[in-house]
Amino acid sequence: MNRFFEDAFNLFKPFTPFYTEETLPVTAWTPLCDIYETEKEIVLKVELPEVKKENVHITLENNMLFLRGERHFTQETERENYHRVERSYGEFMRSFMLPATVDPNKINATFKEGLLTITLPKRADAMPKQIEVKLN
Fold it and tell me: 35 to each of 5, 14, 70, 126, how far by Cα in Å?
């Protein structure tokens, strides 16, 4: 809160960087996720920009899908040259309770350009069936 008031009242002072060694942006964070459903599957799309594939781990246990990983802070620029660091770095973890309709043996995950797509196919016996009505 102090920083807020300092920034508000010091608008015309010379600029000083917000980034210091004490404020290294390595904390737990939560990646954004979209979930949608079609007739045959449930799809999760998780934003993981600048996360390497080898730093992403997906496990399934007792109808719970666990997604964990880490985004590392890389120093491509000298620390003193940063003006602001707003993106979060460090470990992340998400968990999702899967419905009984999902076939756990057919789950598929792809990772492309920072987007993790997890496809959860529905079991054949869980899909809607059309029942024909006959006239007598």
Answer: 39, 46, 21, 19
Phi/psi region, residue 11 (left: phi>0; alpha: psi -120 to 50; beta: rest), is: alpha
We find that the CATH architecture of domain 33-124 is Sandwich (2.60)
Question: Cα torsion for 93, 67, 120, 96, to the nearest 10°?
Answer: -30
pLDDT of amino acid 13? 41
Q: What is the pLDDT of residues 120-134, one digit of tens each?
A: 999 988 777 788 898
Q: Is 23 helix (H, G, I), strand (E, B) or coil?
A: helix
pLDDT in tens, 23-67: 555 567 899 999 999 999 999 999 999 999 999 999 999 999 999
Instruction: Write down the residue that tokens 């997604």 correspond to.
Output: 67
Q: Which residues contact 9 (CB under 8 A, 6 or more apart)?
A: none
Residue 74 in 3-state DSSP? coil
C-alpha torsion 85→51→47→87, nearest 10: -10
| Residue 67 near residue 6, CB atoms below 8 Å | no
